[in-house]
From TrEMBL:
Keywords, sorted A to Z: Carbohydrate metabolism, Cytoplasm, Isomerase, Magnesium, Metal-binding, Phosphoprotein
MF GO annotations: beta-phosphoglucomutase activity; magnesium ion binding; sugar-phosphatase activity
Textual note on the cofactor: Binds 2 magnesium ions per subunit.
Organism: Vagococcus acidifermentans
Family: Belongs to the HAD-like hydrolase superfamily. CbbY/CbbZ/Gph/YieH family.
Amino-acid positions noted as binding substrate in the UniProt annotation, renumbered to this chain: 10-12, 26, 45-50, 53, 79, 117-121, 148
Protein's name in the database: Beta-phosphoglucomutase
Active-site positions on this chain: 10 (proton donor/acceptor), 12 (proton donor/acceptor)
A Pfam family of this chain: Hydrolase
Lineage, highest ranks first: Bacteria, Bacillati, Bacillota, Bacilli, Lactobacillales
Names of required cofactors: Mg(2+)
Compartments in which it is found: Cytoplasm
The protein's enzyme class: isomerase
Catalytic activities: beta-D-glucose 1-phosphate = beta-D-glucose 6-phosphate
Amino acid sequence: MMAIKGFVFDLDGVITDSAEYHYIAWKNLAAGLGIELDRAFNEQLKGISRMDSLNRILAYGNQSDMYDAAQKEALAQKKNDEYVKLIQQVTPADILPGISELFADLKAAGIRIALASASKNGPFILERLGLMAQVDTIVDPAELANGKPDPEIFLKAAEQLNLAPAECVGVEDAEAGIEAINRAGMFSVGVGTKEAMKDADYYVTSTQELKLSEILRRAS
Ligand code: BG6
Ligand code: MG
């Protein structure tokens, strides 16, 4: 068993509750198209890129063939405009419970931190939260060929940390994210319901329960 030397974090729904803002912005966009989204369906959007999310929503509403590429770009842009408005208000007070303590414990233990978010707004949110200086490396989602559940983003994070995937723990709130971590060969930690996190190596129901000593004990 290799020692854990890196933690790779998802952002939305793990470090801050921006997953809720994504949900609000998609729900409003979909409502304008006559498609009603609920939280159960939203689980399938977590971790999924902007355009892939739109495609899933259109398929859900039986509208897959109704828009051409340019119209879909415009719809995705409209969703992002609302999302970007919502995240202007983010402050360090929006860091989810337990995350600041976990980051401090990781620093003290010499364990490096990477961000593996599918969001192009990730760096902006990290800045707003005041966490930029604590993150050692950020994977640029624009450079990826495949989104979660493909392991690419987590493999890239390990590479940027100069670590083997087996030396890393991945933390996610999305079903697609847990699958990506598992396929990357990292120890997966899930935050969410037992049902949504059923494939996680270890799961907690809230970020407050994320304790470094317990995670390291489970991962070894
Ligand atoms: C992920 C979110 O982190 O980023 C998804 O879980 C979101 O809901 C995706 O669609 C892409 O985000 P953005 O900000 O680039 O549209
Ligand atoms: Mg997430």
